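Sample entry (243 residues):
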Amino acid sequence: MKLGVFVCGYNCALYVQAAMDSIKEQTVKDFVAVCVDDCSTDLTAMILNGTKDERFTILRNDTRRGGTMTRLRACQELAGMGVDVMVMLDMDDQLLPGALERIAVEYDKGAWMTYGNWIDEKGCICPHRPMSEEAYSLMWGATANWIMTHAMTFSSRLWAKIPNANWFHADGSPFGSGQSDANLMLSLAALAGPSRIHGIPEPIYRYTRFGSASCLRLLPASERNGDWGEIVSRPRPAILEAL
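Predicted structure, serialized as tokens:
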């Protein structure tokens, strides 16, 4: 199984070296990584270009393209390298030791997509809840949207099912005009189906810029209390209408 990590971000000079080191220090050594700088104005590009590891491909957008479109570019690059699994890592986060090895276990069990727990810079765990059939049926609601921000890996077979690599709506506007990684993950989750989306209970990521408390404040009160009710449905992403 060939794993590919894609690392994207903007103005992450304070964090990107730690992100890169966390990949290099994984127990799995047979991987490739694609790092895309979204036209940063700080020293991010310089730090990335200082990487001598041949497993890393360093790219830079000529203009700001936003989080989603930058991730799509990285995925396109990984697809051309023939990877089996794509692992997303933001430039201001890190993989915990053994993360790639743990992720590979789920794909050996038949996963097409995984999501996992993470810790903040103080070591506090911010847990997810399992992706139940109920959560999947409410895929466009707040709960599943939150879960999908923790969905960091997917199989190349899912990526191959996306029909339009540029991901434009019928009116010509780019699918990736939003910044949320959920733009990407919600569409892939809809293709995978709930039985192919595996949760990893132990922490496998470290978030450095946002602690557990600040992230939890993004959730509606019903979600913070663990209540599946009172979830507002959201429209399907337009890209799925073509699938």
